[in-house]
Structure formats: structure tokens, C-alpha cells
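Long-time lurker. I teach an intro course on protein structure, and each term I like to show students one example going from raw sequence to a predicted 3D structure in C-alpha cell notation. This year I'd like something fresh instead of my usual example. Would anyone be willing to generate the C-alpha cells for the chain below so I can use it in lecture? Attribution to the forum is fine with me.
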Amino acid sequence: MMVDNSTAIMNASYGNYSNLNLEDKNDILLKEQTDKFEAFFVKQVLDIAMKNDSKLFPQDAGDKIYRSMYNDTMSDSLSGQFGLSELLFEFLKQKG
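-- Reply from a regular --
Happy to contribute to a lecture. Here you go:
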């Protein structure tokens, strides 16, 4: 027996969309993609903002990897909080 847990995974990964008026599966998929785009945008901003070129602190091999993983986690948790995702979602929904 195959169990479809995609809805549970989506809700765990991308939050609760109960405040939005999502009529069908396409709206849910579109919202998921706009949240991912916002996470990408936030990661780019964090990568620039958290760049550490100071000579006071030595850089080692794991420094860039750790910073990248930290920025990935922060951008995923912050996505959907800035309004860019909702703005893009509403724009694309009207065009579709």
C-alpha cells in the first residue's frame, strides 16, 4: 500500500497556507514556488550581507561551507515573511 504524504511534507516545509485563498492544487504549487523564489532572493541578500573579508578573523576550509549552510537555513525559515512571495503569487495568479 502506498501512502501519499506530500501534503504533510509540504505543510511541514513551507508553513500553513490557511490564511490564503488557495482554491486548487495549482495554487498550492504556485505558492510553493513563490516561497522558494523568496528563499533564493533572501539567500542572495544574506550571502552579500554576511560576506566577511576581514583580515582579523582567519578563514579556514569549513568557513565558507558553514556560512553557506547557515544562510540556506535562514533563507528557508524566513521565506514567506517579507511579502515578496505573496506579491509574486498574486501577480502570477492574475496572469494565469
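Some talking points for your students: The first helix runs from residue 6 to 14. The CA atoms of residues 19 and 90 lie 14 Å apart.
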